[in-house]
Amino acid sequence: MKLCILENDYLDPAVEATYQGYGAMFERLLRDAGATGDFDIFNTVKGQYPETFDAYDAVLLTGSRADCFSQEPWVLALRQKVQALLDAKKKLIGVCFGHQLIALCLGAQVGRAPQGWGAGRMQYQWLAPDLPQAQGRSDIALLASHQDQVFDLPAGARLLASSEFCPVAAFAVQDHVFCVQAHPEFVEDYSSFLLNKRRALLGEEKYSACMQGLAQGHEGLAVARMMVAFINAD
Predict the structure, then answer these.
(1) What domains can be seen in the chain, in order of their start residue?
(2) What is the mean pLDDT of residues 42-61?
(3) Catalytic residues
(4) What is the Cα–Cα distance from 82 to 13, expressed in whole angstroms?
């Protein structure tokens, strides 16, 4: 496997020494899920990209504090790259911001969620028990952190996961797009750090409920196994 990770943010200095970056978090997760081979990480906020994507089996887009629909120059440049990759049917994995940006490039509506922040451990219906490594599951619990959402399923896409809070929680397009709103790469301590940063924004009731939910764990590794199977599929 040769994977290109487009890292669309940078970590808070308070936790950077612990987690290194979102690209590193994904590499750890995917290797835990059985991935082997080379991982190359490029930070798009800094304008970093490979000279060509041809050598890569897939491209993974991480989350970001930015809006995928913003007019920031680096976001506009990334959207152009993603549109070209979609046109070429390069295998793409999108997570949170990446999920939203790919959906936007596919013509879906994306915007600020009127119900507010999705945060902490969230439960979703899993609608694709037949996917490789899905193991017949009908639900999944993942760690989330987002204030934007995909409002409608892109044309030609298959809905993979849904909840009342986030109806388009994961989707796929044929064998070349796999996107999920939540963060399989997060660990409980990092989710706790984000919740503490946003405590005043969330309000005490939601903050407390989210913190308590972290004790129940999450199934990010299960999603990672599906991602590895997606990349490795012919």
Answers:
(1) 2-232 (3.40.50.880)
(2) 98
(3) 96, 183, 185
(4) 28
